[in-house]
Design brief:
The protein has 153 residues and is an alpha+beta fold. The chain contains three helices and seven strands; from the N terminus they run ααβββββββα.
Length: 153
């Protein structure tokens, strides 16, 4: 088990509290590997997160976005049918989980779907118009002949 102590970093930097919190959250989140997930970039501004949630129904899952934090929760209701069953081996993990993803600024959730045991969350980065690059037209200065023409008149 590897852990990194960020205490020396906190003592020597000022104003990077959010970065330090992100590092702490990332190191704590990586300790739990359940459920496994993929993060895919499908286009320049499109992303997709796939989470393996086999055994969960849509009503068992909750997706919430608050202040650039995407939280996916899975809560299984105790199933009375399982009481009469006797398992020789139970390898399918159907335990409760909470997985968090820190979203960059201007990234929004556009869609979520559940198919074949994979929960797919689609994300899009939408920059406001004032932050998008824009082309600035270059105007030309009045030509020298006009200036000379004004002097002659």
């Amino acid at each position: 088990m590897r852990t990194i102590d960020f205490s020396p970093l906190y003592r020597s930097v000022v104003g990077f509290d959010r970065l330090a919190a992100l590092l702490d959250a990332a190191s704590a989140d990586s300790a739990s590997g359940y459920p496994p997930y993929n993060i895919e970039r499908t286009d320049e501004n499109l992303y997709r997160i796939e989470i393996a949630v086999a055994g969960f129904k849509p009503e068992d899952l909750n997706i919430e976005v608050k202040e650039n934090l995407l939280t996916v929760q899975g809560r299984k209701v105790a199933n009375d049918e399982d009481q009469g069953r006797r398992y020789l081996h139970r390898g399918l993990a159907e335990r409760n989980f909470e997985r968090r993803f820190q979203l960059a600024d201007y990234v929004i959730v556009t869609d979520a779907s559940l198919a074949d045991g994979l929960l797919t969350v689609s994300l899009k980065r939408e920059l406001p118009e004032q932050l998008k690059p824009r082309r600035i037209e270059i105007s030309t200065a009045p030509s020298a002949s006009l200036i000379e023409g004004e002097k002659a008149a």
